[in-house]
Amino acid sequence: MEKTRVALALALSLGVMLAWQYFFAPTPPADKKPVEQAAPTPGQPAPVPGVPTPAPVVVPVTMGPPKDVTVETSLWKATFSNTGAVMTKFVLKQLPNGRKLKAGDGSPELNLISTRAHKVDDKVPAELGAAFQVRIPADKALETVLNTSNYTVGDITSLSIADGDTKELTFTLADATGTTVTKKFVFRGGQFLFDYVMDARRAGQPIPTEVGIGPNFGDQSIKDYDGYTHTPPQAVVYDTNSRFIGFSSVKPEAPQNFANVSWGGLTDHYFAFAFVPARPVATASLHGMQVDSIVSGKAGKREYVTASLAVENGAVNTVYLGPKDRTYLLVANGFIQKERKSTADLRGLIDYGWMSFIVRPMIPLLDWLLRFFYAQVHNYGWAIVLVTVVVNLLLFPLRWKTASSFRKASVHAPRIKELQERYKELQRQKVKMDDPRMLQLQKEQMQATKDSLPVMGCLPLVLQMPVFFAMYIYLQQSVDLRQAFFAGWLHDLSAPDPWHILPVALCITQIGQSYLMPQPTTAPDPAMEMQRKIMVWVMPIIFAGFFFWSAPSGLVVYWMAGNIIGIVSQLIINRMLPPVTPPTATATEAPADGKKKNLKPRTA
Known about the structure:
The structure is a single chain. Strands 5, 7, 8, 9, 10, 11, 12, 13, 14, 15, 16, 17 and 18 form a 13-stranded antiparallel sheet that branches. The chain has a five-stranded mixed sheet with strand order 4-3-2-1-6, with no helix packed on it. A hairpin with a 3-residue loop joins strand 1 and strand 2. The relative contact order is 0.09. By secondary structure, the chain is α+β, with helices and mostly antiparallel strands. The radius of gyration is 32 Å and the shape is elongated. It has two domains: about 325 residues, Distorted Sandwich (Beta-galactosidase, Chain A, domain 5); about 210 residues, no CATH class.
């Protein structure tokens, strides 16, 4: 039985950590809708029942030769192609605070959008398209024409936009059937926001269209995924009541359809691509695909996802393309809510996990503290250490309460040992369970057990867990830690320690803290001793090996700093706690022979 409890404790500990790290929100089921018959393209015969319809002839409109236009601000640089009037490249240059950005592999260009797959000279599958391509579910032939034609864009080859300035880029298309399309982008210098306006008509009548966001979004240098900072692309959709209705990992399955959509977008671990319609739209859909590609030098699968949202002809839609950081998202929210009169809250792009209701309220304080200390020391590694010091100082009263409660509970150990010996003696005498002596002993055991369990002492430990979870999540998602230098060989706090020195040091400090952790001293029990040895020696090794060996350095620095501060705090508490006077027993008790006698005061 005792061995089973030990194994169960170990399994539960591992299970909690694994569930926390690898938990994903459930994917909503795809709406099943009947397949709509595509409307015939002008010039094509209407379908006749029972007679196979020939494939429509797609004839792209040529308004000029293929042409690229470069748009550049202080924060980013984008490339647009007049073939389909789509965005083919988007390079983030720096953050608003002036910090330069690089790709995840260290190359100078951090490109978030590409029309090429992660396979040498292999384009993204045509069915997934490109950013800002047109989608017309009711007329796939016309959709193909609009996405393969060369739009006219004038003599513009580049736009340079200074901070505070605004410039426009307009693509136009017209064919012989009376179909006209206009795509207009309005850019603002020094912002991650810009406007998108589309007007598509046939013979003067509006054409119901959707805009495609994606599909190849995220740091293009990332070739492989992990559970920390290289996560697969995902899609997010919110409805008109600001409720989350879709957050999808890519799966090779049918599109997921949603109604009454307020806004939607795509994310990778640190960056986001969000589209906010001028007004809520009736429909939106998510499309996913896994494509054969090269992953870590080997053949594998690469995930692609795109979101399609209906657009209103001539309406001004807002696009956010930049860091998935709450500070910049709050700035974007201010503009969207004030200028566009929208209730969209782009902070929904940040996923805080299944404990978001506890974690989210703590994030603003943690974010402020990290930025404040960085402004003082200009090093995010030391800023993390200082934040950890502040958090542990705030938790010091809880540590004190825990240690004090366990210290008081420890004085009951001799009493419990004595009751155990008396119980064994009664069993040897074969005393029945309903015997008054046995009933009295059971009553005394229950009282002693109640006194020795530091229930209130465990409560402070529970109250600390939300803070630890908040720090754990925040440090994984903070774009400020991405490629931030700490010291020596640690050039990127968002990457694992290349020499694994930090995980080993963390393991040592975790053992030291576990060894000093206050324990409710009870009578010697081999099973309890084994459990303590597992918690002190085995669990730190498991955590360091399985969860921190490849964890971001910033996260390991936080955890290790917390261990060191915990060791120092416990040593101080152990010296400051006054000795506890053992309880005195003045009541009469029934020994094994059934005769009552007065007990002298006990000493611990």
